[in-house]
Amino acid sequence: MTKTKKAPWFATLGNKLTVPLLRAGVKLNGTGNYPMYLLTVRGRKSGQPRTVPIVTIERNGNRYLASPYGTVAWVRNLQAAGEATLTRGGRVETVKARELPQREAALVLQADIKGGNPFARYYQVTAESSFEEFERVAASHPVFLLQGAV
């Protein structure tokens, strides 16, 4: 089991500023070409919907979510629920989320960071890092494959 973490204060503050914009239908991109969505997932304890802005990774026709801050609340909720909704520009899509095994997650992270992911600094690896380093990082930074409408 991975260690439970909490997002840093600046991410929490940024989320509070970003959520109203995304709810209003403003299409935001993370740094570069990483689209931002509102991820809404059922709380694992409360059962209430929990919403957080996230950035998706789009590679080879697939969409992924990776957690730069480790096993934070939205990750634990998504692990429990297995599905969520993504909202962007007023469009709502329900998706299944499958957590990738460590090796597959490492491959996704490695390709993404080599492709210029601006959030790479949070994973503490570089494009030149070995695959073993990506596997180490994948153990504490869950990656989910998002699969079509539910």
Automatic annotation (TrEMBL):
This is Nitroreductase. One of its GO terms (molecular function) is oxidoreductase activity. InterPro entries: F420H2_quin_Rdtase, Split_barrel_FMN-bd. It holds the Pfam family F420H2_quin_red.
